[in-house]
Design brief:
110 residues, mainly alpha, 2 strands, two-stranded antiparallel ribbon
């Protein structure tokens, strides 16, 4: 459309190509179509605002936003003390690095 910023057409093309896949991912994360649609809508609004700043694949940007937003929603459902314990545990004790086996394979530490 005349007068629209050039990134509008780019984003429309991106959504035409990957929109269904992104919606399925959001529904999977939230376990609800309505909540998944809301999550994707919020992520797309952020994507649109930041489109020119994104270098690389915009789908990766959206997936990070979706995952982060869903984690925040889940954390907010927990009692405050449990939420604090999880967040502090994540900050204070990050996951250990995976170990390389003698045969060269990498095995994560669980």
């Amino acid at each position: 459309m005349p007068g629209e910023p050039p990134h509008v057409a780019e984003m429309e093309s991106f959504l035409a190509e990957r929109g269904e896949k992104l919606l399925r991912t959001a529904i999977f994360l939230t376990r609800s179509r309505n909540t998944g649609e809301d999550l994707l809508q919020a992520a797309l609004e952020r994507l649109f605002r930041n489109w020119r700043k994104i270098h690389g694949d915009p789908e990766g940007y959206l997936r990070r936003i979706d995952l982060r937003d869903q984690l925040v929603r889940l954390l907010l459902q927990l009692p405050p003390r449990q939420r604090t314990a999880i967040v502090l545990g994540h900050i204070a004790w990050p996951a250990p690095a995976p170990r390389t086996q003698r045969d060269g394979t990498v095995r994560p530490i669980v």
